[in-house]
Design a protein that fits this description.
The chain is mainly β. It has no helices and 11 strands. The strands form 2 sheets. Strands 2, 4, 5, 6, 9, 10 and 11 form a 7-stranded mixed β-sheet that branches. A 4-stranded antiparallel β-sheet has the order 1-3-8-7, with no helix packed on it. A hairpin with a 6-residue loop joins β4 and β5. It is globular and about 40 Å long.
């Protein structure tokens, strides 16, 4: 079956960096656009970043633009999110998602993501 497994979360001070990874199995990875979303306590899940099937297209939420970088390695079936200059407001559970439609990954809705990971916690202390 399809599995998306996130890793790399943790506790970091404001201004620090983290790199999240999402390992995919059970699907033809290069057929899927990949996205990162996050959900903070008491808030709705929100779009963070997405990347097209080949990696040629990338999209970011305004709140992370210039600080986060999404990338993928189709040979290793992985997608990564490099997060720099982290802020306390970046604290959330981060999820990766796979979708055959990149457009469905560029804003969160009930239609977003054919498959989801279980999430990884990122906590940024001030």
């Amino acid at each position: 079956q399809v599995q998306l497994v996130e890793s790399g979360g943790g506790l970091v001070q404001a201004g620090g960096s983290l790199r999240l990874s999402c390992a995919a199995s059970g699907l033809t990875f290069s057929d899927y656009a990949m996205g990162w979303f996050r959900q903070a306590p008491g808030k709705e899940r929100e779009f963070v970043a997405a990347i097209s099937w080949t990696g040629a297209g990338t999209w970011y939420a305004d709140s992370v633009k210039g600080r986060f970088t999404v990338s993928r390695d189709n040979a290793k079936n992985t997608v990564s999110l490099r997060m720099n200059s982290l802020k306390p407001e970046d604290t959330a559970v981060y999820y990766c998602a796979a979708d055959t439609s990149a457009s469905r990954l560029r804003v969160y809705s009930s239609d977003s993501g054919d498959y989801w990971g279980q999430g990884t916690q990122v906590t940024v202390s001030s």
